Automatic annotation (TrEMBL):
The lineage of its organism: Bacteria, Bacillati, Actinomycetota, Actinomycetes, Micrococcales. It comes from Brevibacterium marinum. This is Putative ABC transport system permease protein. It is a multi-pass membrane protein. The chain crosses the membrane at residues 12-37, 247-272, 293-320, 340-363, 384-410, 416-442, 471-492, 680-701, 721-749, 769-790. It is found in: Cell membrane. The keyword Isomerase does not apply.
């Protein structure tokens, strides 16, 4: 370790690149972990004053993940609330109901999020708590209380939109919180299922003291206290957090990978240029274990110092990154990032591990240096790559191909991360095999000019062919830069052309009616638009709770379903089930299935038909009337109607579009998010890689001072030698760029093939030349400039 400290003190400039990369990597991981922890699910504001919430247990989805909770039937929920009211320490037990309700003022619907368009019974205000600021509580079927921020006064008459249409209501009061509140009898009519029961406690009573008694009465239900109540956050907020989490995960993965890559290449190159020094240490008695320990000690010291500095930078960068995610609408608007010991500690440990992992291979190679090499006056690389590198490179290539195949078959929302992983593996393969691949590439590219006059061409060609490992080290970061830049920049245009094209092709000959200012089309509006035509489809989306065959008698699996209005799809009182779901549950035509609904009731319905599996619609279809009778808040998202039957004017609450316009608008938000993803990841990838390129080129040029002195002594001018090194670096960089582009093609092709399967239309790779060309030119210019600058400085100081 003392020798490692001595080496760092005397040769600190050789470790600057690794140090900076570790600082940036740890800073990125620290920031990412702090933001992820800060963006964890939180207790909904409207349950903030509810110490205990009792709900049904969550059901499982078809993929095995946790799904929604089925409400109790109203009478069951009321009876359970009455029982819980009698528990010692419980002040009140309130049945909480939620349903779609949107205020219409001056003919315009108000609100565009779940909070402002959610209706509740008046008693639910006690759970927040929200207080009356003016007026009185609602009492009759035409009374409402609204958020005081809407600027609506008491006794004003406004419209109230629900799934069953619009009606006039009177504002009896306002509260200091979001939502629309109606009388309990009206809430029960609009949402007959009891989603949850909130318990308020007597003053001075702790939730822990009451929870066990509540649990005894609740039976199989969940009794949620403290942070457990965050399980009841809104689905839309959970989706936003998931999208932000994907970006943060990709950032952390990219940062960790590039850090390991750069540290490994830096130490490998450093060991290669210190072979004579290491051999001399062996001659004077250093054991292989001591040599290996010295290299790892250098990495450990660099990693510890860099990690501490990086953690500080990451803590400082946490709030700005959180603010950026809020601006991009990729996290909770109430996100507050603050320092936390655990994520900072994890990031610091990761930084040290990254440094040691990057130096491990170099340390092992250093311990095998032959002492007699210290006595040689000249050294020539005998092979372009070691056997171990060739084997590891071949294995990485094979694994990358396997991951590319997996990417083709995976779900579309996972293809981004899998594509990045595939590109990382293939980039490693290209870097490991680069010394072997560079030799034939140089011979091919230099063949047309081999017979040119002058020594420059011969020298450039010979320098690369006689030192392929050095050339491979120079090419490695360029492979990384071009590979990631190509992959990330091509993803957005490839995906952006695939999905709209698929939707447009599927909806050819139709027009689509979409809601304006509301989350869906109300039932009366759908009936008005479709009156007199049978060439239409209007789905009511809902969720069903069905029995898992392995656990009969319990509705324990949630299944997405749709109620269809198209006459050709009417199935009487039965179910139309996709083949994949039928196979999974062992269902056959004619079977009777117990189906639970979102109002807490259940029915036995026959399977009338099994159809081919399609990702374009939910796995179960049933009568629209059945869905409407059980799910009174569901609305029609989109109404598909034959173009010749579509109305020219769908009214103020809807608009009609052709298939292409609909497809472009549907994908607009996803395209925006994906472009933001791509931009952030591209900046990270290119920034990291540019640092690696400059670091590696600088080390390579600095290590060649002896060779440069020989050329200078042979009569070469500074200008000639700088030109020679620049040309050599440019040629190596060009080969690295081609290898990086080649390594990117399999994951891009895999993603395109997966999109083609999903959309049903031909999908080809869409390279973003506006990004690829500048990044490639800039990388080659950076590498050439770094080599020329350091070479010129070395010659001037010689």
């Amino acid at each position: 370790m003392m020798l490692a400290f001595a080496q760092l003190r005397s040769r600190w400039s050789g470790f600057v690149g690794s140090f900076v990369v570790i600082v940036l990597g740890v800073a990125l991981v620290t920031t990412t972990l702090l933001v992820i922890i800060a963006s964890e699910a939180k207790v909904p504001d409207r349950l903030a004053d509810t110490p205990i919430v009792v709900t049904q247990r969550p059901t499982a989805t078809l993929t095995g993940s946790t799904g929604a909770r089925q409400p109790w039937e109203n009478s069951v929920g009321e009876r359970l609330a009455s029982d819980l009211q009698g528990v010692d320490g419980v002040d009140s037990a309130i049945v909480d109901r939620s349903f779609y309700a949107q205020v219409v003022k001056d003919g315009k619907p108000i609100g565009d999020d779940e909070d402002t368009t959610a209706g509740h019974g008046w008693s639910s205000t006690k759970l927040a708590p929200y207080r009356l600021t003016t007026g009185t509580a609602p009492d009759g079927p035409h009374d409402v209380v609204v958020d005081d921020s809407l600027g609506i006064g008491v006794d004003d008459t406004v419209g109230l939109l629900t799934a069953s249409g619009e009606r006039a209501v009177t504002v009896t009061g306002t509260v200091d919180g979001p939502g629309v509140y109606v009388s309990e009898s009206m809430a029960e009519r609009l949402s007959p299922g009891a989603a949850a029961i909130g318990l308020t406690l007597d003053r001075g009573t702790s939730s822990e003291a009451v929870a066990s008694d509540v649990d005894d009465i609740a039976g199989s239900a969940d009794v949620l206290t403290g942070q457990q109540r965050s399980a009841l956050e809104s689905p839309s907020l959970a989706k936003i957090r998931a999208q932000g989490g994907q970006l943060l995960s990709a950032m952390a993965l990219l940062g960790a990978f590039v850090s390991v890559f750069v540290v490994a290449s830096t130490f490998a190159f450093d060991v290669a240029r210190r072979r004579r020094e290491l051999a001399l240490l062996r001659v004077i008695g250093a054991t292989p274990r001591q040599i290996r320990g010295m290299i790892l000690g250098e990495a450990a010291v660099t990693g510890v110092i860099g990690s501490i500095v990086g953690a500080v930078v990451g803590v400082i960068g946490g709030p700005p990154v959180g603010a950026l995610l809020k601006h991009l609408e990729l996290t909770d608007p109430a996100l507050h990032v603050q320092p936390a010991f655990v994520p900072i500690g994890v990031a610091v440990i990761m930084g040290v591990v990254v440094a040691l992992a990057g130096a491990a291979s170099a340390g092992q190679r250093a311990s095998r240096v032959v002492p007699m090499k210290a006595l040689r006056s000249a050294q020539v690389e005998s092979r372009g790559t070691t056997r171990a590198m060739a084997v590891l490179g071949s294995i990485a290539l094979a694994v990358g191909v396997v991951f590319a195949v997996i990417t083709v078959m995976t779900e579309a929302n996972r293809q981004l991360v899998l594509g990045l992983v595939t590109a990382m593996i293939l980039t490693v393969a290209a870097a490991l095999l680069a010394p072997f691949l560079i030799v034939p590439a140089v011979k091919f590219l230099s063949w047309p000019v081999r017979r040119c006059r002058g020594a420059a061409t011969m020298l450039v060609r010979s320098e690369i062919l006689n030192a392929p490992r050095r050339a491979g080290s120079i090419a490695a970061p360029i492979i990384l830069t071009i590979g990631f830049a190509t992959l990330i920049s091509a993803l957005a245009p490839t995906i952006s052309t695939a999905y709209p094209a698929g939707v447009t092709a599927a909806l050819s000959g139709q027009k689509i009616v979409q809601p304006v200012g509301t989350p869906g089309l109300s039932e009366p509006l759908v009936q008005d638009i479709t009156r007199g035509t049978d060439q239409h489809v209007a789905a009511l989306y809902t969720q069903l709770f069905v029995d898992d065959p392995s656990m009969p008698g319990e509705a324990n699996t949630i299944v997405d379903a749709q109620g269809r209005l198209a006459p050709s799809d009417h199935t009487s009182d039965g179910l139309v089930v996709q083949q994949q779901l039928a196979d999974q549950f062992g269902w056959a035509t004619g079977d009777s299935v117990r189906v639970g609904f979102v109002d807490g009731t259940s029915e036995h319905l026959p399977i009338t038909k099994i159809i081919e599996t399609s990702t374009a619609q939910p796995p179960v279809s049933l009568s629209r009337s059945i869905v409407r009778s059980h799910d009174r808040s569901t609305m029609t998202d989109d109404l598909f109607i034959a173009a010749q039957d579509a109305p020219d004017d769908a009214g103020p609450r809807a608009e009609s579009q052709d298939a292409k316009t609909f497809a472009d608008r549907e994908y607009a938000d996803d395209a925006r998010l994906f472009e933001q993803f791509s931009t952030i990841l591209l900046i990270l990838a290119v920034g990291y890689s540019a640092l690696s390129v400059a670091n590696t080129i600088g080390m390579a040029a600095h290590a060649r001072r002896g060779d440069l002195a020989v050329l200078r002594g042979a009569g070469g001018t500074i200008k000639q030698i700088v030109g020679l090194i620049s040309a050599e670096t440019f040629l190596i960089g060009l080969i690295g760029a081609l290898l990086g582009l080649t390594a990117t093609m399999p994951p891009l092709a895999a993603i395109a093939a997966g999109l083609e399967q999903t959309t049903g239309v031909p999908v080809s790779i869409q390279l973003d030349w506006a990004t690829f060309v500048p990044v490639t030119v800039g990388t080659l210019a950076l590498a050439t400039a770094a080599a020329a600058t350091i070479t010129h400085r070395s010659l001037r100081n010689a």
